[in-house]
Amino acid sequence: MANHSRCAACKYLRKRCPSDCIFLPYFPSNDPKRFENVHKIYGASNIARMLQRIPVHLREDAANCLHYEARCRVEDPVYGCVKVIYQLQQELNMAQNQLVKAQSEIALVLNVYGPPEDYISGPQTSEEDLSSSFENYYTQPNIHGHLPLDPSSLGSLDAM
């Protein structure tokens, strides 16, 4: 045996682990279940062949994908990872429908109430405008020809 510890694949297959073992970087000895699942679904020779055909810089991603797909297949032999993909597509469709609904509700509110600037910031009025409109309110007759009641002319409520 070499100076390094055997990988999970070589331990599982009960063979010597060479220093250039294709499985060594991707199936460490401390995670034997990882290789067992992949081996159960794909077989050791197929895994080795796939990894050898892939550029070295992509092999880790490929081994991770093989592990994920094999684990899903072991957990759900009928659907495997397709079940997860389907569930994620359903969640995406629901989120898109919620977005469309929210956008239509926003459009409805904007049609009824106008743009948000009008009711967030309020009308821009100066103190002069406020005092003149206050004076006009109490000095101009209403649509019935009556002057509004000035609250200051009522006196205090304690007198009642």
Automatic annotation (TrEMBL):
Pfam families: LOB. It comes from the Eukaryota. Residues 5-106 form the LOB domain. PANTHER family: LOB DOMAIN-CONTAINING PROTEIN 23-RELATED, LOB DOMAIN-CONTAINING PROTEIN 4-RELATED. Belongs to the LOB domain-containing protein family. This is LOB domain-containing protein. It comes from Chenopodium quinoa. The lineage of its organism: Eukaryota, Viridiplantae, Streptophyta, Embryophyta, Tracheophyta. The gene is LOC110729498.
